[in-house]
Design a protein that fits this description.
By secondary structure, this protein is α+β, with helices and mostly antiparallel strands. It is built from eleven helices and ten strands. It has three domains: about 100 residues, Acyl-CoA dehydrogenase/oxidase, N-terminal domain (Butyryl-Coa Dehydrogenase, subunit A, domain 1), CATH 1.10.540; about 80 residues, Butyryl-CoA Dehydrogenase, subunit A, domain 2; about 140 residues, Up-down Bundle (Butyryl-CoA Dehydrogenase, subunit A, domain 3). Strands 1-4-5-8 form a four-stranded mixed sheet, with helices on one face. The chain has a four-stranded antiparallel sheet with strand order 2-3-7-6, with no helix packed on it. The protein has a two-stranded antiparallel sheet with strand order 9-10.
C-alpha cells in the first residue's frame, strides 16, 4: 500500500502542536501532577481516540508529535503504556468501556504481552515481569490463553522493579485468582506491538534530536587553542555523520507513523525498520553527546546520561535489533 507523500510531511497544525508540547514539557516536565496537566491543558490522552469514544478524534500522527516532544524531555512515561498500548488494544478489540477514562486522563492502563498467566472461571493466576508502568496503572490488560482480559490493578500484587531507565518505570505483577473481564482475542497484540514500535521510534527521534542540539550548542562555545572545537574538522565529520543517521531515523519513523495513521498493511515492515534505524541513531547520538562534552559528559550528574539510559533501555523494549532484522527478513521474503 502506497502512502501519500503529504502524510510524511508535518502540517501547520502539527507544527503548532509541537511548539505547544515542547513549551509544556519544558515548563512542567518534572511536575508530580504532569499526567493530570497533560489531560487538562493539552488533552493529549484523547488525541488519537475517536470522538464517539470520548477522544478528540485526531490521528496517530498528532499523537506522535507529542510523543516525540515527550521523548525529547524524557518525561510522561505513562503515555506509551496507556495512550499507545492500552488504548490501541481496546480500539482493536472494539471494547469501548475504558476508553473515555483514558481519554480524559482519569485512567492509567498497561498491557501484559507476555507472562505465565492462566485464565480460569473468570479469574487470572500467574505472574508477569517487567510490565511498563505496572505499579501506577489503574487498569491492566492481560494476555492469557490466547485471550485478552481486563482487571483492576488494585486486585493485583505489584512490585516495582529497579530498572536502567528510571523515567520508564516497570513492575512485576502477580495474579492470585484475580477477577478479570474478557475483552477480546489476543490476535490484536502483534499489531499493537507494531504500533508501540512506531510510537517508540517517535520518542527516540525526540531524544536523539535533543542530544544533537545540545552537542552542537556545546561544540560551538567550547574553545581549545583559542577556537571553538566545533570548527575542528574531526568534530565536523562526526556531527555530519550523526546528522545523516538522524535524518534516516526521521524518515523511517515518519513512514511507520503514517502506516499506523492510515491503517496500512505495511506496518509490520515499517515498524521493524523504524525500530532498527531509530535505535541505532539514538545510540550513536547519545555516545557523541557524552564524548563531545569531554570530561563533563562522562560525569553521572550530566543530563547526557539520562539519555544514555533511555537509549539503551529502548533498544530492547519491544525486541532486540536482531529480532527486528529477523522479522524484516521474513516480511520481505529474504
Amino acid at each position: 500500500m502506497l502512502i501519500d507523500p503529504a502524510r510524511l510531511t508535518e502540517t501547520p497544525e502539527q507544527r503548532e502542536l509541537r511548539t505547544v508540547a515542547r513549551d509544556f514539557f519544558a515548563a512542567h516536565g518534572g511536575d508530580d501532577g504532569l499526567w493530570k496537566r497533560l489531560a487538562g491543558e493539552l488533552g493529549v490522552q484523547g488525541l488519537a481516540i475517536p470522538e464517539e469514544r470520548g477522544g478528540a478524534g485526531y490521528s496517530f500522527a498528532e499523537l506522535a508529535v507529542v510523543l516525540e516532544e515527550a521523548g525529547r524531555a524524557l518525561c510522561a512515561g505513562a503515555l506509551l503504556p496507556t495512550v499507545v498500548l492500552a488504548a490501541h488494544t481496546l480500539l482493536l478489540c472494539g471494547d469501548e468501556r475504558y476508553l473515555p477514562g483514558i481519554a480524559d486522563g482519569t485512567l492509567r492502563a498497561t498491557v501484559v504481552f507476555d507472562g505465565d498467566v492462566q485464565a480460569r472461571d473468570g479469574t487470572l493466576s500467574g505472574t508477569a515481569a517487567s510490565v511498563l508502568d505496572g505499579a501506577a496503572a489503574d487498569l491492566v490488560l492481560v494476555r492469557a490463553d490466547e485471550r485478552l482480559f481486563a482487571c483492576d490493578a488494585e486486585a493485583v500484587i505489584r512490585t516495582p522493579l529497579r530498572v536502567l531507565d528510571e523515567t520508564r518505570p516497570q513492575a512485576r505483577l502477580e495474579f492470585r485468582s484475580t477477577p478479570a473481564t474478557p475483552i477480546g482475542s489476543a490476535d490484536v497484540l502483534p499489531r499493537v506491538l507494531d504500533i508501540g514500535r512506531a510510537a517508540l521510534a517517535a520518542e527516540q527521534l525526540g531524544g536523539l534530536g535533543r542530544a544533537l542540539d545540545e552537542t552542537v550548542a556545546y561544540v560551538r562555545q567550547r574553545k581549545q587553542f583559542g577556537r571553538p572545537i566545533g570548527s575542528f574538522q574531526a568534530v565536523k565529520h562526526r556531527l555530519a555523520a550523526l546528522l545523516v543517521e538522524c535524518e534516516a531515523a526521521r524518515s523511517a519513523a515518519a513512514y511507520a507513523i503514517a502506516c499506523v495513521a492510515t491503517g496500512s498493511p505495511d506496518l509490520p515492515v515499517a515498524a521493524a525498520a523504524a525500530a532498527t534505524v531509530c535505535a541505532g541513531a539514538y545510540r550513536l547520538a547519545v555516545a557523541e553527546y557524552v564524548q563531545l562534552h569531554g570530561g563533563t559528559g562522562f560525569t553521572w550528574e550530566h543530563p547526557a546520561h539520562r539519555h544514555v539510559r533511555r537509549a539503551r533501555a529502548d533498544e530492547v523494549l519491544f525486541g532486540t535489533p536482531r529480532d527486528h532484522g529477523a522479522r524484516l527478513a521474513v516480511a520481505l521474503g529474504l
